[in-house]
Design a protein that fits this description.
single chain, about 325 residues, alpha+beta, four-stranded mixed beta sheet, about 40% helix, flat, disordered N terminus
Length: about 325
């Protein structure tokens, strides 16, 4: 039980539906032990040990008595459990009932989480606590459309350049991921998109409407609801996939790592289409470069456009 480092451990599979997770630990709560025994009669003779029981076991194995400090670590109401990565099986009591998760989090959250676990062709460990992160993403997405009072806050304002860049980066990524059946990275991109739009305080119909269409294949229920809320008819399933405009995702600037004798010292942001001669002049004239040039002679300047600037000195 609890955090005590006992000299012996018991290896028993407990039914996953009776395992609680809190404070970063898995445990069996003594209050649920009665329900466990009803559902699984094979556990009818089990009980959670008290301090006296643990002290006897500890003394038997270590020939020592528990110290007061060790006794304070014992929680008589909980048994701390370990984890094993195993195939889901009724005999191992580790089958997760999707109905319970859907009732709690919704079908879209469950669907997104399954895709977010990893590539379809790989074996993946199921970790129910990870579903919380996907659930938070759904709620954050919802807040792009509604305020705390449940009022629609979508506007018809014209999108800014940064907002269009976020949208079209997402269109490009989702399109590529669908073609590769890489659904986990697509869900990750939706999270990135939502975070960036939240930071930009974007509630613009022209952006959000297209995000909802992209999301429809992954979270159809919430996508359909938001599509209807935005005043669109008929179903979102008939909507056209957003068209990618590469112009919006072109980088106008590039952050060059500036190195001296192969060691990066600082970064310099310059126009992406700047000529090599101009890049060299600006890099040498920059005030941050003067520290590394003082008392030294420039032997060579290597400029690789959109990659590096390396200044060789002696």
């Amino acid at each position: 039980p609890s955090k005590l480092n006992t000299p012996a451990s018991l290896s028993i599979h407990f039914p996953v539906e009776f395992v609680d997770f809190s404070e970063g630990k898995y445990h069996l709560d003594s209050k649920r032990l009665g329900d466990l025994k009803v559902a699984y009669p094979q556990f009818k003779d089990y009980k959670i040990a008290n301090i006296e029981d643990i002290e006897k076991i500890w003394n038997f194995f270590s020939k020592q008595k528990l110290t007061d400090e060790e006794k304070n670590l014992i929680d008589e109401d909980k048994v701390e459990l370990g984890t094993l990565v195993e195939k889901m099986s009724k005999s191992l009591y580790n089958v997760v009932n999707p109905d319970e998760l859907i009732d709690h989090y919704g079908a879209d959250t469950f669907r997104l989480y399954e895709m977010f676990l990893g590539p379809l062709e790989n074996h993946k460990p199921w970790d129910t606590k990870g579903i919380e992160g996907v659930y938070r993403f759904i709620k954050k997405l919802w807040r792009l459309f509604f305020n705390e009072n449940g009022e629609l806050i979508v506007t018809n304002e014209k999108p800014q350049e940064l907002e269009l860049k976020v949208l079209h980066k997402t269109i490009k990524k989702i399109q590529e991921d669908i073609e590769r059946f890489s659904f986990n990275t697509a869900v990750s991109q939706f999270m990135i998109c939502t975070n960036e739009l939240t930071d930009l305080n974007c509630h613009k119909r022209e952006i959000l409407e297209k995000v909802v269409v992209l999301l429809a294949s992954y979270a159809p229920h919430i996508a359909e609801e938001l599509w209807q809320v935005l005043g669109n008819q008929p179903s979102i399933s008939t909507a056209q996939f957003p068209e990618l405009n590469e112009e919006y995702i072109k980088e106008n600037t590039f952050e060059y790592p500036v190195s001296f004798n192969g060691k990066m010292r600082f970064k310099l942001e310059l126009p992406a289409n700047m000529a090599k001669d101009e890049i060299e002049k600006i890099a040498l004239a920059d005030e941050k470069a003067q520290r590394w040039l003082e008392g030294k002679q420039v032997r060579k300047v290597i400029v690789v456009p959109k990659k590096i600037i390396n200044i060789v000195v002696s």
